[in-house]
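Translate structure to sequence.
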């Protein structure tokens, strides 16, 4: 079972200028930090600026209406978010603004291309769902609830600008809709006492054990390198939770305002949801 060991880069890339401002390692990718560049130029201009060692900053990617620039390969940590913890776990992308002030808006075309990029990156990195519960810094590093962290939580900056902050939920919803289609399932109705928590249907896969130190854990292989991760999934009429590595959870898992209690997992089929408790 692959855990992001073989990193790839986006097939949407049209321009490559690799920045020296990077760390040659990272942890497993589980989310995205979306930034605005603060200017109205083109990808090439931003990449040129990030090539300088004196800049002391970088993104994994830079996007505008026409180009997607690769600045730091996904196998490496970019220096983007004023937080090592975020940059180690997230692909970072700077989107060029259509207006370089106020709410720092981006164009409709850039929004559409950003969503295309996120869907592809999720599929390549086995991220089954984007979680977004609003502009709430208390969710920082709580990856099961928020894997779209905001730069403004870690530095005194407006980034990514109010325009994108207001649209982050809609962006996540559209990405999740496309991911559900790619994984062969749709969103069910909400579960528990929190309308932010949904369950996704998946089928046609095969339960498998982990290996080595994870031999006691179970995961659900959907084929083609895909598997459920970071959320609740309905498999064969039963509800299961999978953690950020893709392994089935046992015991209790807190999601939103609820505690989900799962059975033991001597056999994968025994690890289904037993009960939900309000917190």
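Result:
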């Amino acid at each position: 079972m692959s855990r992001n060991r073989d990193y790839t880069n986006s097939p949407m890339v049209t321009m490559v200028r690799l920045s020296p401002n990077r760390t040659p390692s990272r942890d497993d990718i589980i989310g995205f930090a979306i930034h605005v560049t603060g200017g109205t130029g083109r990808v090439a201009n931003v990449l040129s600026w990030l090539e300088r060692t004196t800049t002391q900053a970088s993104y994994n990617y830079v996007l505008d209406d026409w180009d997607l620039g690769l600045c730091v390969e996904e196998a490496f940590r970019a220096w983007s978010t004023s937080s090592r913890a975020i940059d180690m776990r997230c692909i970072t992308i700077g989107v060029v603004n259509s207006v370089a002030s106020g709410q720092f808006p981006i164009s409709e075309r850039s929004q559409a291309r950003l969503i295309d990029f996120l869907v592809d990156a999720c599929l390549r990195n086995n991220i089954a769902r984007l979680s977004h519960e609003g502009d709430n810094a208390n969710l920082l590093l709580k990856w099961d609830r928020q894997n779209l962290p905001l730069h403004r939580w870690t530095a005194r900056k407006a980034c990514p600008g109010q325009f994108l902050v207001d649209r982050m939920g809609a962006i996540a919803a559209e990405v999740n809709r496309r991911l559900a289609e790619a994984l062969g399932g749709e969103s069910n109705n909400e579960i528990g006492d929190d309308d932010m928590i949904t369950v996704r249907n998946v089928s046609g896969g095969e339960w498998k054990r982990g290996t080595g130190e994870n031999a006691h854990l179970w995961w659900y292989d959907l084929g083609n390198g895909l598997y459920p991760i970071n959320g609740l999934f309905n498999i064969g009429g039963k509800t299961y939770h999978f953690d950020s590595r893709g392994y089935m959870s046992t015991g209790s898992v807190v999601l939103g305002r609820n505690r989900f209690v799962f059975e033991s997992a001597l056999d994968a089929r025994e690890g289904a949801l037993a009960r939900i408790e309000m917190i």
